[in-house]
UniProtKB/TrEMBL annotation:
<dbReference type="Pfam" id="PF00994">
    <property type="entry name" value="MoCF_biosynth"/>
</dbReference>
<dbReference type="Pfam" id="PF03453">
    <property type="entry name" value="MoeA_N"/>
</dbReference>
<comment type="similarity">
    <text>Belongs to the MoeA family.</text>
</comment>
<dbReference type="InterPro" id="IPR005110">
    <property type="entry name" value="MoeA_linker/N"/>
</dbReference>
<keyword id="KW-0808">Transferase</keyword>
<feature type="domain" description="MoaB/Mog">
    <location>
        <begin position="179"/>
        <end position="318"/>
    </location>
</feature>
<comment type="function">
    <text>Catalyzes the insertion of molybdate into adenylated molybdopterin with the concomitant release of AMP.</text>
</comment>
<protein>
    <recommendedName>
        <fullName>Molybdopterin molybdenumtransferase</fullName>
        <ecNumber>2.10.1.1</ecNumber>
    </recommendedName>
</protein>
<keyword id="KW-0501">Molybdenum cofactor biosynthesis</keyword>
<dbReference type="InterPro" id="IPR001453">
    <property type="entry name" value="MoaB/Mog_dom"/>
</dbReference>
<dbReference type="InterPro" id="IPR038987">
    <property type="entry name" value="MoeA-like"/>
</dbReference>
<dbReference type="InterPro" id="IPR036135">
    <property type="entry name" value="MoeA_linker/N_sf"/>
</dbReference>
<dbReference type="InterPro" id="IPR005111">
    <property type="entry name" value="MoeA_C_domain_IV"/>
</dbReference>
<comment type="pathway">
    <text>Cofactor biosynthesis; molybdopterin biosynthesis.</text>
</comment>
<dbReference type="InterPro" id="IPR036688">
    <property type="entry name" value="MoeA_C_domain_IV_sf"/>
</dbReference>
<keyword id="KW-0479">Metal-binding</keyword>
<dbReference type="InterPro" id="IPR036425">
    <property type="entry name" value="MoaB/Mog-like_dom_sf"/>
</dbReference>
Amino acid sequence: MSLLAVEAAYRRVLAGAEPVARTERLPLREARGRVLADDLRSRRTQPGFDASAMDGYAVRARDAVTGAELAIVGEAAAGHGWAGSVGPGEALRIFTGAPVPEGADAVLIQEDTERLAGSARIKVTDAATAGDHIRRAGVDFAEGGLLCPAGTVLSAGAIALAASGDHSHLTVRARPRIAILATGDELVLPGEPIGPHQIVASNTFGLAALAEQSGGTVLDCGIAADDEAEIGARFDEALQAGADVFVTIGGASVGDHDLVGKVFEAKGVELDFWKVAMRPGKPFMAGRKGPMRIAGLPGNPASSLVAATLFLAPLIRRLSGLPDRPLYREGVLADAMPANGPRANFVRAIVAGETEGRPRLTALGKQDSSLLSVYARADALLMRPVNAAPARAGEPCLYVPLD
Ligand SMILES: Nc1nc2c(c(=O)[nH]1)N[C@H]1C(S)=C(S)[C@@H](COP(=O)(O)OP(=O)(O)OC[C@H]3O[C@@H](n4cnc5c(N)ncnc54)[C@H](O)[C@@H]3O)O[C@H]1N2
Ligand code: MOO
């Protein structure tokens, strides 16, 4: 099988991927960052009454001319309206959020009045105009009106709006279920006893974080030995559990113990592609088995995280109903870069400072695909295109942010 270009692999992974159809109903406090499943309409009008926007006096604007004296007839505070009607020559003491009484058509802020000593009267020092400082009923939204369309990602503002529209719960898209299986006889979990030729399985944890950050929920399938029957059993379990994506780690290359491709074949997976023209992350597999998508990641830690960042995270975002992001952003090179070979090189890099408004990228020193100490320091993958000529410092480049 020949190597597929990164951009083509990205398009093929996303082709036909739709948000999962399942929904769930959540209390507002749990809805942050989730995607609204249906149009959200208001259950009330806001404000439900004409409300004062300031502390002062509710008046008839035609009476509240500069120099006029007005009699204070009562008081209205937020939550406590005043039942009467403001008549000629009268003013109602009013506070922010209180309902504007009948008869009044303006609120005079208290800074534009003088309280006359020893009497329940004020003098107007700056005239009012009709409509001043009144928030009309329904100025924010009306009962039955659209608050947020389906597909809205629930931000702090959207959640506050939903609360104001009197919704205690929201129907959101369910998170896609991402099953993650690590493979390899050499792997043990962090904290478990470890043999002399074993290593700690790290990839599951990084990938689970990435999957959750992208809107998914993780089904941890643990570690399978390099054994076709065992990998196959975990595959069946994931399918039965209704996984939307089955992610494998390791065993994706060509060695005698790289069994994942064989298991996929035996299970009738329709393989879309295997191997992408990129470094690290070349032995990436994509396919599907019925409703379950398959992402076979390479075992090397940086390889699995790079391939997952480029292909798996955008897929999970799409299945979650989150908006697509562009594959690359534009930056500039902080330093000269050597020529590149036939695989796009995703160089672990740091974004520091800007040149002419574009982020400046500095490649980190060591780039071996086993190095998590380097990967963890990086905040971007600087993309060196296939067969790129040497580049000078200050030249434009493309990169993928790591957040
Ligand atoms: N003859 C060839 N050999 C290799 C090729 C090739 O084209 N021809 N490709 C190389 C490339 S590129 C990569 S990337 C790796 C990927 O190999 P696999 O996906 O088969 O991964 P494994 O062999 O299972 O493991 C590689 C490496 O990663 C460690 N590993 C595996 N799983 C985990 C985990 N969950 N957490 C942490 N580390 C893990 C494993 O112990 C190995 O050290 O193949 C090259 N070989
Ligand atoms: O593609 Mo491998 O991921 O070069 O190390």
